[in-house]
Amino acid sequence: MTKIVGVHGVGNHRPALTPPEAAGQLARIWSARLAPDVDLEMAYYAHHLRGSVAHSGSDLPESLDEEALEMLLSWARALETEPAGVEHGWVTAPARHLIARMTGRPFTRLPQQLFILLFLKEVQFYLGRRYRQRRIDAREQVATVIKKHQPSVVLAHSLGSVVAYEALCADPELKIDLLVTLGSPLALPYTVLHRLEPGLPADGGLMPRPPGVGRWVNLADPGDLCAVPPWLSTRFPVDIDRQTTIGTFAFHKVARYLDCVDLEELLS
Predict the structure, then answer these.
(1) Is residue 53 exposed (0-12), middle (13-18) or buried (19+ Cβ within 10 Å)?
(2) Residue 237: how many CB atoms within 10 A of its CB?
(3) What's the pLDDT tens digit per position in 76-97?
């Protein structure tokens, strides 16, 4: 039986459940999409992000503060959607315009646009300058589950790939055979990459490899707006960088990544 630890992405806070209950619920959801001989534990860290800007409930660009706006501009640059003349003096209109350009539609609270706001807020709350302790708590939660479950595989989706990477780098005693990152934003410049711990090498080389990881495989859909750039190997020492198709209408969804043939082959 393959022992796996899953590390979820954004949008998974379950305030009506205790953290163990939320972890169990997510584990059942993920396990249902994998092979029947999988023993999966979920590293649930979303409760460490509660009560923050990440869960303010607002679904408008006006809810973004200065740091989140900086992240949005960097994200838009990475997608080559930055309009001319939006370097300084942030106001609501540029934020709306950037989000509209990123999705190809006027800002109308479409699902992708709302997800962009959610993603920005939760990434900010993990990587932002003001939230150091909650970042440590989330990272240590992931490390604790890995130590307890002793998996051979860690599956990390979205922001979870960032938390898992930092947790694995911080503790050399965490040993796994395979790390699989799904729809990972690890290489997203300035928004994520330049905020990571450990930091960028001074010589401009690749980011450090987590010392206890045997193999590292990255899977990303070329249309996933969060996996920018999709090739982590431009910045990280991954063993395999593979584009996988999860469907035009399945933007960034973990369910479709878990269903993909490439992941099935890796875990078989």
Answers:
(1) buried
(2) 14
(3) 888 875 444 444 444 455 788 8
